[in-house]
Amino acid sequence: MARPTAQLESCAARRIEQDMKGHLRLVAGIIALMSLLPLAALSQSSPPGLAAPATASAAPLPDEQLDQLTAPIALYSDPLVGQILMAATYPLEVVEAQRWLQDPANAALKGDVLTAALQQQSWDLSVKSLVPFPQILQMMDTNLEWTERIGDAFLAQQDAVMDSIQRLRHRAAAAGSLTSTPQQTVSIEDQDIEIEPPGPDMVYVPYYDPSMVYGPWPWSDYPPFYLLPPPGVVVLGGLAIGFGFGFPILGPFWGWHHWDWPRHRLDLDGGRVPVRAGYWEHDASHRRGVPYRNASVAARYRGESAAAPRDVRGFPGAAGAATGAAASERGAGITPRETPTRVAPANLRTAPSAFESFAEGARVRDQAARGAASRGAPAPRPGPSARGGGAHHR
User: Fold this and answer.
1) Is there a domain that residue 384 lies in?
2) Are 320 and 285 in contact (CB under 8 A)?
3) N or C: which end of the chain has fewer CB within 10 A?
4) What's the number of domains the chain is made of?
């Protein structure tokens, strides 16, 4: 049951104080990364911490880097956050879905016709579920390097990513930014903040400046990333969260999963779509040969994705749908959240205030272009890079 706003802010303040005590014990730093960019591209300004590593690393990301990654989406509704994080683990399919939407005939599809068209595609269910939100899909494609990073972080550190989202939501609540509105319902349960659409028929995407909405940012060397809003959307300054037009819910591609915040799980709900009830598991067959950046994740899925590179260029239909494992036992035996143990790497580096696609993102786009060409489709146009800082609003 939702508590009054005053209690929500008070609980958020206590949560932040506890988190900050833990943060003071961390040794600040990041992993020294090697870029795969050609020499000509190295002359460009590359966001530190986002350069593509030559080899996968097993070291987990510390809180400051996770908060930097999750800041642009932490205040989205729970269902959208889940769809974004799952889809981010399949970056090549995100690119293909965005290119599919660039066809005016596909972009004009609505309702049952769009549902039927999406059911013919081989993409993972999470990617299909973002097509009704073209602005989100475009954002993930434009900022493909971020998409890969947050997707791989979710695979390697799901607990820590979920903690980061809750940590930022409590900050926003304590700052007075996160409240229930006609476009969203904010509630707190067992110290976890949940954000849901206000009704069953419409979803609103929030737009906000992460450098302001969370109050004073605790990581000066890792300012929160800022995603430029789509054309025509004006982001208000300060603590305000704005909303554009609502997006109608597309039945088969909505309401098929839910967060179990206390147990750090993303559970699938069977019945409405062809998935088995239980916790979400990554399907490596939809990775399409894109390498994993975390060594332990790469080892975990090496066998499943061994044949994937041969599918990259032609985008053949992938066999298998998203599946779950053990049924959820939601509500029974819930234990309090425990902060995962993390290793803080060394050497702090500053970070930019906006996302920029380069390195691995450019390579994935090139693969998508070849895949489209092999099927006789027009080659995709390269997406623009989002540039600018938190103070740059349209």
Assistant:
1) no
2) yes
3) N
4) 1
Tell me the pTM.
Answer: 0.69
Rounded-to-integer distance, Cα 50 and Cα 328, Å: 35
Q: Looking at the domain assignment, is residue 332 inside a domain?
A: no
User: Among residues 124, 67, 11, 94, which one has the least CA distance to residue 357?
Assistant: 94
Parent domain of 157: 5-19+57-316+339-374
* pLDDT one digit per residue (tens) for the chain, 394 residues: 444 455 555 555 555 555 544 444 443 333 333 333 332 332 333 344 444 444 566 789 999 999 999 999 999 999 999 999 999 999 999 999 999 999 999 999 999 999 999 999 999 999 999 999 999 999 999 999 999 999 999 999 999 999 999 999 999 999 999 999 999 999 999 999 999 999 989 999 999 999 999 999 999 999 998 877 777 676 666 668 888 889 999 888 999 999 999 999 999 987 667 778 899 999 999 998 899 988 999 999 986 655 454 333 333 333 333 333 322 322 222 223 333 333 333 332 333 333 433 345 555 656 555 555 544 444 343 333 333 333 333 3
Tell me if 211 is assigned to some domain.
yes
Tally of CB atoms within 10 A around 307: 11
d(CA 142, CA 361): 9
Instruction: Output the furthest CA–CA distance in the chain (Å, rounded).
Output: 58
Is residue 45 in some structural domain?
Answer: no
φ, ψ dihedrals at 259, nearest 5°: -85, 140
SS3 state of residue 299: helix
Using a 10 angstrom Cβ sphere, with 0-12 exposed, 13-18 middle and 19 or more buried, the burial of residue 383 is: buried
Contact 260, 326 (CB under 8 A): no
CA dihedral 302, 307, 310, 311 (to 10 degrees): -90
Beta bridge mates, 186: 195
